[in-house]
UniProtKB/TrEMBL annotation:
<protein>
    <submittedName>
        <fullName>RNA polymerase sigma-70 factor, ECF subfamily</fullName>
    </submittedName>
</protein>
<dbReference type="InterPro" id="IPR007630">
    <property type="entry name" value="RNA_pol_sigma70_r4"/>
</dbReference>
<dbReference type="InterPro" id="IPR007627">
    <property type="entry name" value="RNA_pol_sigma70_r2"/>
</dbReference>
<dbReference type="InterPro" id="IPR014327">
    <property type="entry name" value="RNA_pol_sigma70_bacteroid"/>
</dbReference>
<dbReference type="GO" id="GO:0003677">
    <property type="term" value="F:DNA binding"/>
</dbReference>
<feature type="domain" description="RNA polymerase sigma-70 region 2">
    <location>
        <begin position="34"/>
        <end position="98"/>
    </location>
</feature>
<keyword id="KW-0238">DNA-binding</keyword>
<dbReference type="GO" id="GO:0016987">
    <property type="term" value="F:sigma factor activity"/>
</dbReference>
<dbReference type="Pfam" id="PF04542">
    <property type="entry name" value="Sigma70_r2"/>
</dbReference>
<dbReference type="InterPro" id="IPR036388">
    <property type="entry name" value="WH-like_DNA-bd_sf"/>
</dbReference>
<feature type="domain" description="RNA polymerase sigma-70 region 4">
    <location>
        <begin position="137"/>
        <end position="184"/>
    </location>
</feature>
<dbReference type="InterPro" id="IPR013325">
    <property type="entry name" value="RNA_pol_sigma_r2"/>
</dbReference>
<keyword id="KW-0731">Sigma factor</keyword>
<keyword id="KW-0804">Transcription</keyword>
<comment type="similarity">
    <text>Belongs to the sigma-70 factor family. ECF subfamily.</text>
</comment>
<dbReference type="InterPro" id="IPR039425">
    <property type="entry name" value="RNA_pol_sigma-70-like"/>
</dbReference>
<keyword id="KW-0805">Transcription regulation</keyword>
């Protein structure tokens, strides 16, 4: 295993030898490769991407891969060609991912804009009806009975009063109080009343 006695010596070694040294466990050889190539690879990525952060991420990923998988790297050409190709491939992956993301976003936007609003209205109406029924069930017994007769039948106030043996004025007051109570409890459904 090569051990440099002077880190400056690494500056004089060619790229492929530096990679071989790193593959043998020489960590300073990796640092030298990083210094040599990071700037150029970053500029290469920046030319193809819109965001500087994306370019930094791409270059960092390439160096991370080299660091973690150095033992499996077999060069068929120069290290420089290998690195620039790796950056280009990752840039293309980023672009494809962003394009796919935008297509999904556009598709979702189109779906939302053309969605069946009547279905949404029916769902909201169903929820609102269930909530109203729940609140009606919580009214005091006599008030609930008067209110339900006034809303669920075609009986007049006079007919309700006769049926329940109440005065017509009491029926009106019970209905008015029920409506006021329900309005207060259903205030988050402003279009209801």
């Amino acid at each position: 295993m090569y051990q440099s006695s002077y880190p400056g010596e690494l500056c004089e070694i060619n790229d492929e030898t530096l990679l071989a040294l790193f593959q043998q466990g020489n960590a300073p050889a990796f640092d030298e490769l990083y210094k040599r190539f990071w700037g150029g690879l970053y500029l290469h990525a920046c030319r193809m991407l819109e965001q500087e952060q994306d370019a930094q991420d791409v270059v960092q990923e390439v160096f991370t891969t080299i660091y973690t998988k150095a033992g499996s790297i077999v060069l068929t050409g120069t290290l420089s060609a290998y690195l620039y190709t790796a950056v280009r491939n990752r840039v293309l992956n980023v672009i494809a991912h962003k394009r796919t993301y935008r297509q999904h976003l556009d598709s979702l936007q189109q779906f939302i804009s053309t969605a069946d609003h009547s279905l949404l209205h029916r769902i909201t109406e169903k929820e609102m009806t269930a909530r109203i029924e729940k609140e009606i069930a919580l009214l005091p017994a006599k008030m609930r009975e008067v209110f339900e007769l006034s809303r669920k039948t075609t009986l007049s106030h006079k007919e309700i009063a006769t049926r329940l043996q109440l005065s017509q004025e009491t029926v009106k007051k019970q209905i008015s109080n029920a409506i006021r109570t329900l309005r207060h409890k259903m205030s988050h459904f402003p279009l209801l009343f």
